[in-house]
Write a structure and sequence with these properties.
With 985 residues, the chain is an alpha/beta fold. 44% of the residues lie in helices and 13% in strands.
Length: 985
């Protein structure tokens, strides 16, 4: 597959569709979707990581080989066929990539196995971020392997850790259940001499025995693991391969040698009950470049950087050119060939230098494509970048993505929270807070305090080891200047933890000197930490601030500033996982006031978003990041967009909700158990459960099998939430009694249909909440699709998809149903009078067909007018009248071409019966005001036949909502200028 004339300018998608690839959904399955996606109006298929991952991976983020596609997803030919199918329909491919880490510990990562075999002498030792020098002599020149289910000595003496020999490969390994760990080849000689002595007399000729002795000696003479000379390391690598091949040949030719080696291995493996029989194996394991250990000690002693706290994902040193080249060669070759149009970069905050990585990515692509070096981005949003790149980054509301990063934007977490906030009644925050606190009592904690507490929880738990290393490094820096040398390790550790817990963003990005934004966030964190730590040693926070901005005291020792900045860069890679684990994976699972705001990048204190704030965010995006991605659901979402749209409705009825949850709690109190002297589940978990149920209960009647399946999904989501919260149970220390009580409670509530007062009650309430949630979803769909940016659709979410946290949100999608919806939508679009058909869609909005109609129609307009929309300005539209708070309206304008988008919000405020949408006269005197006086003429409605009189050129200064929203609660009007229609690109 070739692309003889690569484009200098990136191919920016006009709409993307994300699918999760795994062994049950392969390249061929994705190819089968292409015609449907083309008809839907999608320009780019957006796939999860396609490189070879750990066997059975459901997500692809545990890559073990960057040089090949994942065989579980299909062959290279099948991948090429997928690309060809996309290109045949003028579509392209966007690929998720994982540069920050690789999957390890499972014996399928050749780089990692080489590190375990050769230690610091491995050609890949510097690919991974391993601290080979350690204050603990037990870990000096070793990597910790926390894979054991019990203490090392116990596992060894049970016989679960064993020596093994692979005759075909000529290799010895340490086996522990599914793990196969290489041993240092320089130790093979001693084992071969033991085997030689175990040979029966006459089993091998004297010549052969001498050759075996020579082979053992050659293994002995291999350069050691601590060799620093490149030539010695290379010789060790080459000679190891040659000597293993020779050993494999020996055992093939002489079965007696295999028997002798097996005898040695059997003796080495010891006899349970005889402790001394394991001494030889213990000594052999102790001589390796790794330390086998119980999995629980990883939190305190891990000496390789991980992805967050996941031992099986080891971080890569992407700042090293050879690592970048090895991990990106195949992907960039595919991009240069035209197979890939763009990349989604996973977790760049884990890298030492994200900005440098983005620049290198664009530059290397340009070099391989024979293009001039890109000049990058400018502050006005323009970009000279040859490859479309978006980054997975959580951006706080008070944070700006640096304008000079060589990317087109982020993956849209911020937009997901913006659009969700628009559907929340912000005025209800105090009332809902009282409802939550009244229900859960002391379990309710304000979110700012909770986030601070939970960051401390992870720093004292799963990320404690990294904090220890950083504190020791900070102590060494303090000792280099006599004015700071009296700070103790304890005082520095406490102050450092306080600063990390107080950071207002995930991380800063200082490389050589801090930006103004970096300095602001450092000062913010220092100030908050100082206020919370009144007992801290005087001056310790001043010292920390100087370290974090790389500014030692005047007269400090030469080079100290450089070392300060090195420490600051290292700390930046720590604050991000602390924030992720402390906030995303702990605090957001404890704060349950309104859980629709508790999602990736969300802030429960940012309760709702005003119309003015929404316009401001859209204007900023239009100006600074016009090609960024717009998401509303992702594979990382804790709850799908449609579940959130439902839960948002609770904000419109806090009084009714208070009475409802009280009634449900009384109905269900007999289903609770007593665990450790407390009623289980907790009131906070119970409060969460009720929100999840009203947010996700399927529309229509459920038979017993359907109800049981649904109960299992809710149970799974609740158990994950309870473990992530770390309040009563956790992944590290499961409280099985509590989890049993929680599961029992869920199934008691949802286990049967007959004579289930709770289920009858909840279905009635869900009918109300589900109706208004479905109306919210219509507005969300049209606003997202036609806002500045690139709308992204997570698999299945073009219609209603009531999914909970993964793995629930990765369930198979019913694409056959969605194809039927597409056929129906086309039929409606062709009708001369669509009113009755649209009324039918709206009356059953909860089944997802209305959302599909809106999505499809908006995507058709976006595809047909992509040039206009990509260059259009964003124009907030003023709305006046009694219902002005219940509508969002904006225009996209480019020259004489324009598109007006109108959506209903907070529909429960109309007080209409379920099934009756706020249409026509419900809007009273509410009207949209055109900002420049008389509206342009020739307006065409997209979704309905409303405002048809506008086609005839009637100039007006306002658009009455009673007319615009006469048939449907959302509307799109567009200019009918002949020159405004694009040719799809």
């Amino acid at each position: 597959m070739t692309n003889p004339t690569p484009r200098r300018e990136a191919i920016v998608p006009h709409a993307t569709y994300r699918v999760q690839l795994h062994s049950g959904f392969r390249f061929t399955d994705a190819k089968a979707l292409v015609p449907y996606l083309a008809d839907l109006g999608i320009s780019h298929l957006y796939i999860s990581p396609p490189l070879r991952a750990r066997a059975g991976s459901q997500h692809g983020y545990d890559v073990v080989d960057h040089g090949m596609l994942n065989p579980e997803l299909g062959t290279r030919a099948e991948f090429d066929e997928l690309v060809e199918s996309l290109h045949a329909r003028s579509m392209g491919l966007l690929v998720d990539i994982v540069p920050n880490h690789m999957g390890v510990l499972s014996g399928d990562n050749a780089w990692w196995l080489d590190v375990l075999e050769n230690g610091a002498a491995s050609a890949y030792a510097d690919h991974f971020d391993i601290a080979w020098r350690n204050a603990d002599p037990v870990l000096s020149d070793k990597v910790l392997l926390p894979v054991l289910g019990d203490q090392y000595g116990a596992e060894l003496e049970k016989g679960d850790i064993r020596l093994a020999f692979d005759a075909a490969a000529g290799a010895f390994t340490v086996a522990y259940h599914e793990h196969r760990l290489p041993i240092d080849p320089s130790g093979y000689g001693a084992l071969l001499r033991l085997a030689q002595r175990a040979l029966l007399p006459g089993a091998m000729s004297g010549v052969r025995v001498n050759r075996l002795s020579s082979l053992a000696t050659l293994f002995d003479r291999l350069p050691g693991r601590n060799e620093t000379e490149a030539s010695a390391r290379q010789r060790r690598q080459l000679d190891t391969v040659r000597l293993k091949d020779a050993l494999a040949q020996h055992v093939r030719e002489f079965p007696a040698l295999v028997a002798a080696i097996d005898q040695v291995v059997g003796v080495m493996n010891g006899r349970p009950g005889d402790r001394s029989s394991f001494d030889a194996l213990d000594a052999l394991i102790d001589a390796q470049a790794y330390r086998l250990a119980h999995w629980r000690i990883a939190a305190d002693e891990i000496n390789y950087r991980r992805f967050f706290d996941i031992n099986e994902l080891a971080a890569l040193r992407m700042e090293r050119p050879e690592v970048f080249e090895a991990t990106h060669r195949l992907l960039l070759e595919l991009a240069v060939s035209g197979a890939i149009d763009g990349l989604r970069v996973d977790h760049p905050d884990g890298m030492a230098d994200p900005a440098g990585y983005f620049e290198r990515l664009q530059l290397r692509y340009a070099e391989m494509a024979g293009l001039p070096a890109p000049t990058g981005r400018r502050g006005d949003g323009a970009a000279d970048l040859p490859l479309y790149v978006v980054i997975e980054k959580i951006v706080a509301p008070h944070e700006a993505v640096p304008d000079d990063w060589a990317v087109h934007g982020t993956t849209g977490y911020r937009f997901a929270n913006v659009i969700n906030g628009l559907m929340i009644d912000g005025a209800a925050k105090t009332r809902l807070d009282r409802v939550w606190r009244s229900f859960v009592g002391e379990e309710a904690v304000d979110f700012d305090t909770l986030a601070w507490q939970c960051r401390h929880v992870v720093m004292e738990g799963t990320l404690a080891g990294e904090l220890t290393v950083l504190s020791a490094s900070l102590l060494r820096l303090a000792r280099e200047d006599r004015r700071t040398r009296d700070f103790t390790l304890n005082s520095l550790r406490q102050a450092l933890a306080e600063v990390v817990a107080s950071f207002p963003v995930y991380r800063t990005y200082m490389l050589h000197k801090p930006s103004a934004q970096d300095r602001k966030f450092v000062d913010w964190a220092i100030g908050r930490a100082r206020r919370r730590s009144l007992a801290a040693a005087p001056g310790v926070f001043d010292f920390l601030r100087r370290v974090l901005i790389g500014r030692p005291l005047t007269g400090a020792p030469v080079g100290l500033g450089v070392r300060y900045r090195e420490f600051a860069r290292r700390l930046q890679q720590y604050t991000a996982p602390v924030a992720a684990k402390g906030i995303e994976d702990t605090a957001l699972y404890r704060h349950h006031r309104l859980v629709s705001v508790n999602d990736v990048g969300g802030d429960p204190d940012a309760f709702g978003m005003s119309i003015d704030a929404f316009h401001a965010a859209s204007l900023d995006r239009s100006t600074r990041w016009p090609d960024t991605m717009l998401a509303s659901s992702t594979h990382d979402a804790k709850r799908s967009e449609d579940v959130r749209m439902r839960i948002d409705v609770i904000s419109e009825m806090p009084a009714a909700w208070r009475l409802t949850v009280r009634r449900w709690s009384r109905l269900n109190r007999s289903h609770k158990r007593t665990v450790d002297g407390e009623r289980a589940p907790t009131r906070n978990d119970e409060y969460l459960l009720y929100q999840l149920i009203v947010g996700s209960l399927p529309v229509g009647e459920l038979d017993d099998a359907g109800l049981a399946h649904y109960a299992g999904r809710v149970e799974q989501a609740m158990l994950k939430s309870a473990r992530e919260s770390k309040a009563v149970t956790s992944w590290m220390n499961p409280n099985l009694a509590y989890e049993g009580a929680l599961s029992s409670f869920v199934h008691a509530l949802l286990g049967r249909r007959e004579r289930n007062l709770f289920l009858d009650d909840v279905q009635g309430n869900t009918a109300v909440i589900g109706w208004h949630g479905a109306l919210n979803g219509l507005t969300m769909a049209v606003v997202k699709t036609l806002s500045p940016g690139v709308p992204d659709f997570y698999q299945g979410h073009e219609s209603i998809q009531l999914s909970l946290v993964d793995p629930d949100n990765r369930r198979p999608v019913d694409f056959a149903l969605r194809r039927e919806m597409l056929t129906e939508a086309r039929s409606i679009a062709a009708m001369p009078d669509r009113s009755a058909a649209l009324g039918e869609l709206l009356a059953h909005a909860g089944d997802g067909r209305a959302k599909f109609w809106v999505t499809w129609q908006a995507l058709q307009l976006r595809r047909d007018r992509i040039h206009m929309l990509r260059h259009a300005t964003y124009v907030p539209l003023e709305v006046r009248g009694e219902r002005s708070a219940n509508v969002i309206a904006f225009a996209r304008r480019h020259g004489r071409s324009w598109v007006v988008v109108v959506g209903t919000r907070l529909s429960a405020a109309f007080g209409l019966p379920v099934g009756t949408a706020p249409l026509g006269d419900c809007w009273g005197d509410t009207a949209i005001v055109w900002p420049e006086g008389a509206m342009p003429d020739c307006a065409e409605p997209l979704l309905t036949d409303a405002v048809s009189g506008q086609r005839h050129g009637t100039h007006r200064e306002t658009l009455p909502l009673a007319e615009v929203l006469r048939e449907f609660p959302v509307a799109v009007l567009f200019s009918a200028d002949a020159g405004s229609h694009d040719t799809p690109t």
